[in-house]
Amino acid sequence: MKFEIQKSKLDNVGAETLVVFVSKKSEKKDKKNGKNGGRTAVIEGLSRALTPKLETAADEGVLTGANAESVFFRDSGVAGARHILAVGLGDAKALDHEVLRQAAATALGALKAQKVRSVAVALDTLPHNDLTADVMTQALTEGFLLANYSFQDFKEKKSDSKEGVERVALITATKSKTYEQGVERGMIIAESVNFVRRLGDRPGNKMTPTMLAEEAVRVAKGTKLDVDVWDSKQIKAEKMGSFLSVSLGSSEEPRFIAMKYNGAGKSKKPICFVGKGLTFDSGGISIKPSAGMEEMKYDMCGGAAVIGAMLAIARLKLKVNAIAFVPATENMPGPSAVKPGDIVTARNGKTIEVNNTDAEGRLILADALVWASEQDPQWIVDAATLTGAMGIALGNLHTGYYCRNDKFVQKIAAASEASGEWTWRLPLVDFHVKDMRGTYADLSNTGAKGREAGSATATAFLEQFVGKDIPWAHFDIAGTAWHTGDRLPYCPRKGASGVMVRTFVQLAMDAE
Ligand code: BES
Ligand code: ZN
Ligand code: ZN
């Protein structure tokens, strides 16, 4: 899909299909003739050629401007466009970038259904709003590209991909550089999200720890990203006994993936990302029930998100220093597997009783967080499909996060607001830390209170491995990393969502 900004009036755009936006505004009545009395649909910036066609549809109640509404006028023959697609935005006052992202996805669905290949989008039909030109075009670009994702790597006959929309021209009467900047940013971010989704959607045998590391190396080519990959020998030599213990039951080698990007002066402390790269979680000896176990191929989505965020940061050439660490392994019940009750030692010397081998995410993140803390970062954020409890608590719309640093929370809230990814802060207190004390070792990998506040106690465990004064936030994406398309039209119904890439990239932009 190719994007361009085109300076043009709406009288004669010369497009196969022209997309116009329709919003809702209360009490907009034509006082002169009362013709459209009661109609709430409002279309701004329309040309004279287009107006009658759309107004008739609005008068007849077909076009209301409701959110997610789309009305296709086939062979309309007006304004130099063969077809017209009207897309609803909901209340004009509530328009924000997320509404646009979703509207672009709605548009793409309708365009695909009509087998449209080339489209012009009338930016000037957006209602007057506070959004800047680049935020607008970024959101639309993201919406189109994210909605266009489909995972067909293992299908002989691929549907859609060759037949979909090829060209998107964003039309405005006042072309400016800012519009282009938004498109460029939106493209880089959405392509990174789609890359992350692909990693997540690949099954365990096609996305082993080795393959995940190879993907990180592959995408880094042509960018300023440095990638360093450790094998089990190096992981052992670096005293990452907690991480290593999870890999023992698998015949697949673990990998520790380290990515580095230097976009700022040496004196600037790096921002740091850590992600859980569990390429398949069977639960290990504490094996999971078989129903739904196939979904545990997504247990590396946190690691993938971090790799994708680094890719976007490098492609955007942000003026920051950034580092990322992804411990990658399978969790399997092979003959050498770690057993319930085993005691392992993490890089910081803390001993851990492995009371449930299925609570393995925290074991691999522990060593990665120690390593990250040693790099003297500005702050650390991690993403992990860590606990089923998070899915139960917040469902698939909000990513729950924990952070004890109020100032950092403000930054996160601002980044999440700007990215459009919904996040929600949850409480972490010293009682949760107490719950994670071990009986025979310093720590236990399961909470004394069983499943109660399971996401919080898991976070309290992780906290034991983060440097004391480093601002740190843990994002549990167990509920939001896949199958979010029933809520968000630009996400696949089934499959990885690529969540956290957008917010992590925004955090990096804000750190410039
Ligand atoms: N990968 C799972 C968490 C998970 C579960 C993610 C369901 C997405 C959907 C994690 O490794 C795990 O199994 N956690 C256990 C921890 C428990 C044993 C303390 C859990 O949440 O049940
Ligand atoms: Zn597990
Ligand atoms: Zn897991």
Chart the SSEs and their pairings.
Elements: E1 2-7, E2 15-24, E3 41-42, H1 51-59, E4 70-73, E5 81-91, H2 97-113, E6 118-122, H3 133-147, E7 167-172, H4 177-201, H5 209-220, E8 225-230, H6 232-237, H7 241-247, E9 255-262, E10 271-275, E11 277-281, H8 301-315, E12 321-331, E13 343-345, E14 351-353, H9 361-374, E15 379-384, H10 388-394, E16 399-402, H11 406-419, E17 423-425, H12 430-434, E18 443-444, H13 454-463, E19 472-476, H14 501-510
Parallel strand pairs: 1-7, 2-5, 2-6, 6-7, 10-12, 10-15, 11-12, 14-18, 15-19, 16-17
Antiparallel strand pairs: 2-3, 4-5, 8-9, 9-12, 13-14, 16-19
One zinc ion is lined by residues 281, 283, 331, 358, 360.
Q: What does this molecule look like?
A:
The chain is α/β, with parallel strands linked by helices and 512 residues long. It is 32% helix and 21% strand. It has helices at 51-59, 97-113, 133-147, 177-201, 209-220, 232-237, 241-247, 301-315, 361-374, 388-394, 406-419, 430-434, 454-463, 501-510, and strands at 2-7, 15-24, 41-42, 70-73, 81-91, 118-122, 167-172, 225-230, 255-262, 271-275, 277-281, 321-331, 343-345, 351-353, 379-384, 399-402, 423-425, 443-444, 472-476. The strands form three sheets. Strands 8, 9, 10, 11, 12, 15, 16, 17 and 19 form a nine-stranded mixed beta sheet that branches.
